[in-house]
Amino acid sequence: MPSANRFSAADHAHMARALQLAARGHFTTSPNPRVGCVIVRDGRVVGEGWHARAGTPHAEIH
């Protein structure tokens, strides 16, 4: 596992994807934050989601 201050290119790519997913909640999640989630296991994406609107399940549930 990478240390807290050293991230791999794959880590950066997965975070960029999570931010893209979070953007889908723009204008619909207030007062909650926009949240995107990418779940990776053994280097493979096994799940993605985003918080679509306030009052609905959060990103990691999808």
Mean of residue pLDDT values: 88
Shape: elongated
Sheet of most strands: 2 strands, antiparallel
The residue fraction in helices comes out at 10-25%
The helix/strand order is HEE
| Poorly predicted runs | none
Count every beta strand, where a strand is a DSSP E run of 2 or more residues.
2
Span between N and C termini?
25 Å
How many alpha or pi helices? 1
Could you say how many structural domains there are in total?
1
Strands across the major sheet, in which order?
1-2
Tell me the Rg in angstroms. 13 Å
Strand content: 15-25%
Class derived from helix and strand content: alpha+beta
Identify the notable features of this structure and list them briefly.
two-stranded antiparallel ribbon, alpha+beta, elongated, 1 helix
Overview of the molecule:
The model has no long low-confidence stretch (mean pLDDT 88). This protein has 62 residues and is an alpha+beta fold. The chain has one helix at 9-23, and strands at 36-41, 44-50. The chain has one domain (9-61). Strands 1-2 form a two-stranded antiparallel sheet. It contains 1 helix and 2 strands, in the order H-E-E. The radius of gyration is 13 Å and the shape is elongated. Helices cover 24% and strands 21% of the residues. The protein starts with 8 loop residues before the first helix and ends in a 12-residue tail after the last strand.
